[in-house]
Amino acid sequence: MIPRVFGRSIRRLPTYRCYSCGGVSISDFSTRKKGTGSGPFVELPEFTPLQDSILIKIPSSCTVYGRLDKISAITSDIRDHGKPFLAQDIDSSKGLSIVTTGEHPANVLMASHTPLSNIVVLKLDNYKHGIYIPNFYEESLCFSGDLHIDDNGELKGLGIVALAGQGPIYQMILKPGEKNLVARESILAYDSKVKCQLTKLSSSFNIPQSVHEWFVKNASKFYDNAKVQWSRLFNSHKIYCELQGPGSVFLQTNFVPGSKPFTKSDLFKASQ
Question: What is the tens place of the pLDDT at every residue in 156-166?
Fold first, then answer.
């Protein structure tokens, strides 16, 4: 469960958006947000990925959570000197750093553990339909807003999140009814409107007839489990996720095949 940063009524908008940014000049770095992270008209932070850092423009009275604990630069108005305008804490249970502004906005430049090409920034503004992020706390670089993630990994609400993938990230846009097969480990996130199910490709690996006959004769009660283990040994790389549009899918390109083992339930679903 993500902490609810804004516990108040907010105008609901229909969808989420993603964007990417180029270089940032000194004037961009010095210009701070004018709004506030509280009240009926909330202004969200702004995340700008750089080559090896991320620039976070935080409005006043706002909190940002993330796997970022190294602040390399902070901008503040000279009138703020001597006043508390930024607080930093750690949520040890989730391994997250917490940065909070007071009465004044602040720009924070924080070191990132992953390069620019491995980051995608998503804005969400929908409380009914969100985006599935299977490993949210492992793959979110930073986030802020009135966000909630359920047990299935669907993130909803009004907020902003920067995801850090394993290798460069690509956005696949599926048309209505369009289907694609992708490795489960390559999926970083996908639109909640996208249908996702496991499917097994035909394989040349089968249990040899002699092994089959031996199990039937000598160990029939263990046969089903043996078939599952055989499938894991030879066919795990033959199981893919079938994605059907419409919607967007974000794929990470540097993944390890087989790093997410399949359960017996997964294998059963894939064989249907």
Answer: 999 999 999 98
Model confidence over 98-149: pLDDT tens digits? Answer: 999 988 888 999 888 888 889 999 999 999 999 999 889 889 999 999 999 9
CA 122, 166, 240, 262 torsion-angle sign: negative
How far, in Å, CA of 63 to CA of 146, rounded? 10
CATH assignment at residue 149: 3.60.160.10
49 versus 17: which is more confidently predicted? 49
The pLDDT, as a whole number, for residue 150 is 92
Q: Quote the pTM value.
A: 0.72
> Which residue segment(s) compose the domain that 182 sits in?
169-200+237-268
Domain contains 21: no
Q: Residue 204: its pLDDT value, please?
A: 47
**Which residues partner with 100 through β-bridges?**
63, 87
Q: Whole-angstrom Cα distance, residue 192 to residue 16?
A: 11
**CA dihedral of 71, 72, 77, 81, whole degrees rounded to 10:** 70
Q: Confirm if 146 and 157 have CB atoms less than 8 A apart.
A: yes
Question: Are residues 153 and 176 located together in one domain of the fold?
Answer: no
Domain boundary among 164, 186, 216: 164
Tokens standing for 58? 């935080």
- Overall number of domains in the chain: 2
Same domain, yes or no: 156 and 187: no
User: 81 and 145 share a domain?
Assistant: yes
